[in-house]
Predict the structure.
Amino acid sequence: MSLNRPDLTKFPPRSPRVRLGGHVILPRMLDKGRATLAGKNGEYHYACPMDQRFLEFAGIDPEALKKELHQSDTEILKWIQAHAQHKRTLPEILAWSAWQENLAPDNPDGREYFNGLHKAGAPDRTDIITWFDVLDMDDFVSFGGKA
């Protein structure tokens, strides 16, 4: 998979657990944005509610970021650090990322969506607890894996 033009009709984006500059979610969002620009995003959506968590934490406009997606991850991270409305320290980023890794649905609509993904992909697994768990499982089974 090319990181500059990922084809999300053939491969999933990076896991939400993968970090860039300490940030979870960011590499996955970059994959989705680049695939969207290439018309290869499949079922994935750039600036979805999960991406919004990062965008709000950093204070980054998704359309402004989209204009930078031709750059490497390292260059984009530098751009984010320069343009973020909320300048975060590394300890703040790491604490936020740890919190994100452990989030589970906290409202009925979120729980219903989560349960639907879980039931469709791996109904017998009892280790699917967080949003990141269910997304990793869904990506895996969506591309032919057996949960």
